[in-house]
User: Fold this.
Amino acid sequence: MKLLIRLLARLYPAPWRAKYGAEFDALLTDSRADWRAALNVVIGALKMQFTTWGYGRFAIAGILIGIIASAGVAFSRQPQWRSEGVMSSSAFGRNLWDEFTRVAQAAATRSSLTKIILADNLYADERRNSALEDVIQNMRKHISIAGLNTPGEVSIRYEYRDRFAAQRVVSELMSDMIRANLDVGHSTMDLVSGASLPAKPFNRPPFIIAAVGLLSGLPVGLLAGYVFRRRRVKA
Assistant:
């Protein structure tokens, strides 16, 4: 432990080590070395380093800490995967958007989504702690059915923390829409492209992580520099 504390003492500024290094070694030899002593050495070294820093170093330190913190938060979150399938419907060409909306709603009823949730064992943790109705409402928030720029085509998307489950849900939703169209619709509906298997999560963009760290860390670093400089002036 004493060897570790001597190594940690090198965190102190070089002028301090040159002036008080021998005295520190003598004190360390006569004192009890434990984790509390090691922590005190680290805290004291950082405080002394901060008092000698200028705004530039504080800004750089703040940026680095901000980037590390934002990356830690981002990567501690569960990854979310988005699967997408595309279908075509003659309802668009016949201006039957209301009819298509009824088809989409029929495919995403409470009973149909309950069947999908139980069949694929989705939201297992949430179902243990929340009512099924709340789980279904949460699932609906992650389902997107919208028209595309290509005439007559519609995109069906679903986001989930498991990419294979996301793909299965989109496939099941597309099948349910085809069945619902046969029951309540008067237009044709065909598959353009099947549900995609996501290659990477969409909620971990590294550029945004770096930008958040930069924008949050820079002002924090400058503020810390201002506080420490004021304390140094008062001292």
